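Students often ask why we bother encoding 3D structure as a string. The short answer is that it lets us treat folding as translation between two languages. Here is a chain of 687 residues written in the first language.
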Amino acid sequence: MPTNAAARSFTNRLAREKSPYLLQHQHNPVDWYAWGEEAFAKARSEKKPIFLSIGYSTCHWCHVMERESFENPTLADYLNQHFVSIKVDREERPDVDKIYMTAVQAMGQGGGWPLNVFLTADLKPFYGGTYFPPESKYGRPSFLQLLQHIQQLWETRREDIATSATQLHEQLANITRPEETQGLVLAPDLLHNAAKKFEKDYDPKHGGFGGAPKFPRPTQPAFVLRHGVRLGDQEAIRMVLHTCERMAAGGMYDQIGGGFSRYSVDAGWLVPHFEKMLYDNAQLIHLYLDAYLVSGEARFADVARDIIRYILRDMTHPDGGFYSAEDADSEGKEGKFYCWTRAELAKLLTTEEFNLAVRYFGVTESGNFIDHSDPNPLPNQNVLSIVDPNLSSTEQLLLTSAKRKMFSDRTRRIRPHLDDKVLASWNGMMLGAISRAHGVLGDEKYLAAAEKNLAFLQSKLWDSKTRTLYHRWRAGERDSVQLLDAYANLLAGVIDLYEATLESKHLEFALALTESMMVKFYDKEAGGFWQSAANSSDLILRIKADYDGAEPSANSVAVLAILKLSAITDRSDLKAAAEKTLRLLADRLQRLPQAVPHLLLGLDFWLEEPKRVVIAGDKAAPLTRELLRAAHSVYQPNKVVLSNNGPVEPFAKTLPLVGGQPTVYLCTGTSCQPPTHEIGKLKQMLK
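And here it is in the second language, the structure alphabet:
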């Protein structure tokens, strides 16, 4: 995102790309290449090392390093003379990012973005790090000094570099190859052990698990809630509900426009890193729906509604695809779009509204946020959070009026950059969240948005003839990349949509996705799913991702999705593949459950025979819709909801209407409770 007018006199080959991140660098004087054979061939023919820089378009420190280094003509000249420079959008190519992030962490460096790695011409890494400063300080060299040192080593000790790179490649192959743990039993003890470890990390003051910086990581509290409900552990349930309440009261939550930022830099959820990601908000919709179903408190449902309102308003393509992210920065200042000064509010609001807003949001004259990354930070900025929630009914009306004015005023500000690419993986997450929100909350707008989104993805990224799902669409073009992340997350979302609608066409598409995913990514010999397809010639490793970070790993998502699909269709082969994957990752589940909270959800589902809610009757009939809504209105995570027709399991097809009315059966295995037409009775049966 060049801010320097002189930089615009350059245009490099990234101008041909579709990635918003790569396009941000199209005017750098650095002679950037996209990841691909053109760059690799140049490195081989000219015998130069590769400088690989990985980031994403809403990454604040990526912008900082661009301004400081990649727009610097002197530094660019040095890079152009001695290196082949490659830019990668880590959101488009998580498979490339995973390999080189693992390499940098294996070198003893911290992970993060921008990720900057030096490679041999055969793509093997030999040195790397994250942000490199433009000037030497704190005992660290400047970026130019580092480049000069790497170049000197390349000229004088190239064989040593090649040897080191080969050794590191072998090390990476070993550490990224999970091996099934012989004799480790997949038992409920693994769930109990994990819950105890999570609860030990709980922050009793602010909620959440762990300290600053604090990421929501929604599948972790989702697992604790699931475990707490099963055991009747009220303290575990309280931990999660308190976490949800404190997150929604904090500055990480956009109090005016809805939606969550990526994380909080402090332990109290107050000061966010302001970028908003589609994948975070999708997972948080699920968590707040869970909190609502368990507690019955409408405020949790309201947060889910606000997130969806934000997504449909600001993050949706006119044809239905969901955009990827919004930046932390606006006009080069982090948080400028979201923060307020006391003086701004005094000018905008009536005296009564102003006094209430100051009290409610904790607004002060000096503010509570400074953009330390900017040499000229804006003064007196306030991140809004809920400091005094105790309002009378009259004050509630005043607050609504004040927020309406603040929202309207904010729309006249310059918005942060929008990353408008559409990723199949993240769209699958949001598709599932909005579909489930329709099932739980009954809003028809959510169903319309979900159906439109799936139609968009099928039109733009799915090739029905070859059963191929591509990963990224933007500006009329899709990429040629195939990733497990795309297949697994879209599959999970389509299953949620099927359960919310009972439309056979959605189940048929889920099965088509699954068949293709199993062929392209499943390891029949060892279990587990490869992150990339076998024909990915631009990768030095095929990895089975097994870390549920801000995004759940595709292995974890795939396990839970195919277990659900197996329960709906009675596909024993899918259940066996999920079990084999769980056994492959059993050591991870036992020793480091903090790394795999979403996989724990899959294990939880596998350990218990799932309940099957079979609804027989015309899908359009009012009673059928009421029964379907009732099925989704009870917190029962280890259940599936299905029709008695279409490609469902054979037993469900034998279950008839009773008395000519839509009828629901609650089944486990081959036994069912007596059929019913009664909404209240169905809810009681599920509880």
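Translate back mentally: Residues 158-175 form the longest helix (18 residues). Keep this in mind for the problem set.
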